[in-house]
Write a structure and sequence with these properties.
CATH topology of the largest domain: Rossmann fold
Radius of gyration: 18 Å
Distance between the termini: 36 Å
CATH architecture of the largest domain: 3-Layer(aba) Sandwich
Number of helices: 9
Largest sheet: 5 strands, parallel
Strand content: 5-15%
Number of strands: 5
Order of helices and strands: HHHHEHEHEHEHEH
Shape: elongated
Length: about 210
């Protein structure tokens, strides 16, 4: 196993301190930040494929994503402006009345690891806060999570409010969460139904 493979093994196992130490060692040895990011991205995509096949599970993804963010904090400042491709700015949150955040947090971590600028509003987020933040931060995408059937309607209400304000076309709107389906996304005229973090990144890469 070479050192880059070892680095991802540390990330995959949630060995944060070992991952940070090896990242710093690789950089001192002349390994490029781009190569480290490329290796981490490829590794997380493979991990995402295993997640979709139910060969790894949510707790494993969370520890890997947390370790990955530690690595990214070290290497991202070392990229030159020419290397940093401007990616979309995404506002995410769990809708009002719903405090569940684990899935949303994972989505945010994976988006950040893939170069997206993520503004995470947390849980129990009002429609007004979603919109005010998206407008203030000049976001490209709004992502709403709902983990309870009783809060699903908040996703629809936000889209209706964007229409009422004549700003619907400014934003791509993603929806997700346990009770959400493609049928629901189509019904409320969302731009995308994202079944998991990796599907979310694939959608963002496609637009």
């Amino acid at each position: 196993m070479d050192k880059l493979e070892q680095l991802f093994a540390f990330v995959e196992n949630g060995d944060n301190e070992e991952a940070k130490d090896l990242t710093n060692a690789l950089l001192k040895e002349g390994c490029s930040p781009q190569k480290i990011i490329e290796t981490m991205t490829d590794g997380m995509r493979k991990l995402g494929d295993l997640f979709e096949k139910k060969e790894v599970f949510l707790p494993e993804l969370l520890v890997a994503s947390d370790a990955l963010m530690d690595v990214m904090e070290i290497v991202e400042p070392l990229l030159s402006s020419a290397d940093q491709v401007k990616k979309k700015r995404v506002v995410i949150g769990t809708v009002e009345g719903d405090l569940h955040e684990i899935g949303k947090n994972l989505v945010g971590m994976v988006m950040k690891a893939n170069g997206y600028e993520v503004i995470d509003l947390g849980g129990d987020v009002s429609i007004q806060k979603f919109i005010d933040t998206a407008e203030k931060e000049k976001a490209d995408v709004i992502g709403m999570s709902s983990l309870m059937t009783t809060t699903m309607k908040e996703q629809q209400s936000l889209i209706e409010e964007l229409k009422r304000l004549n700003i619907r076309e400014k934003y791509k709107v993603m929806v997700g969460g346990a009770p959400i389906s493609q049928k629901w996304a189509d019904q409320i005229e969302a731009d995308a139904y994202c079944v998991n973090a990796f599907e979310t990144v694939r959608y963002l890469d496609s637009i």
